[in-house]
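Re-run with default settings, no changes from the original entry. Doing this only to confirm the output is reproducible before filing.
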Amino acid sequence: MKHTRRGVRHGVRYAAVGAMVCGGLLVAQSSPGGSAHGAESGGSSQVLDGENAQDGARTDLGSRLVAELGASRTAGNWTAEDGKPVVAVTDEETAAEVSRAGARAKLVRYSMEQLRSATETLRSAPRVAGTAWMVDPKTNKVMVLGDSSVSTADWSRMKDMAAPMGEVSMERTTGTFTTKTDGAAPIFTNGSRCSAGFNVTNGQTGFILTAGHCGPPGTPWFQDTAGKTSIGTTVQTNFPGNDFSLVRYDNTKLSRNSVLDVGSSQQVKITNAADPTVGQEVFRSGATSGLRSGKVTGLNATVNYPEGAVSGLIQTTVCAEPGDSGGPLFVGNTALGVTSGGSGDCTKGGVTFFQPVTKAMTALGVTIPGTRIGDAGGAADNSASAPGTQVAQDDVTSLDGIMERVEAFGPGLWIIAGGVVGFAVSLRPRRRRYTSYTPGW
């Protein structure tokens, strides 16, 4: 676990006043909390402790440098195996600036402006279902993938179009690019199923954020295949183009907080949303294939599904199978995306794409419960952190805010607080951490 002076100091302060300020927080940690599929209260699931919990979204150094230096001087960024941020640059002067800022620079031939121009050329051509492309900053190329459904003639035409563009690389892949309709927890409608992604709110109403291809507005969702226990109704969808939708909770008995089920009666507390970085290890949960991990291999990917093109996606090596659609992509306590589609399965592996949650939540005007609308954004923690949780903060008032108010009362209150430290500690539930993952999850 990473420790900072601020974190250690606050840990002592929170222990001193935890039982006095908000005893309900302890209950929230040990109660089921209701996963993103809307579980009823009263289970025995355990909320997990995050090894790299963070106070909101952190801005990644590499992403910040790319934004500051511009698309004509840089060509993206990624996280190296040793955790060091790497920035692709087009000249020695920019490389020196990157090095002075504390990141690693790699000289490349093509700028992001040139790479984006290539993707626009691909987008302007007649659409070929079964193809996908994204900018790969590591190779300084636009990688074009063609699945097994693409005919030899169509692939040949695409290769002819890309031939004059040295920044484009072509590659065939196994399987077919499909939406994974048919995950944290299953939700059912009309004989098919998807996965709940993240619980979100507009400040008044609770919703499930999931994949847009799961169903159009008006689609009813249930907890069971027989349709006996209602969850809610899809009220807004964006697909194709994007791949996200909102399911409004109609069942008032279902919990709507920001906890995810990830299997084995264990849960993850989601406290913020952010964008990932290429090279970052991430985790996905789904009802069909459970909890899986992999790495981000590209951003702003375009996939030509049979139903239409979807752009701006996160490309990963995480496997997925039918039924995992809409399930959550996350790292630590940070929401990253919802499962869109891909190729392959969890036996042979494959490529899986995710709709970024930051873009979806901004478009929908919603946010993670306990945060303010507009808090989503930035970059996620680049450490390969296992899923986890911070102290529950479903109330708008954070513990930091409470501590500032408590300190205003002076030292007298701290003397009183000291008397309840032992009692508060004795009531604190024992929590577990994920320390490793097995392929069987």
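Confidence is low (pLDDT under 50) at residues 1-35, 39-59, 383-441. The CA atoms of residues 378 and 433 lie 26 Å apart.
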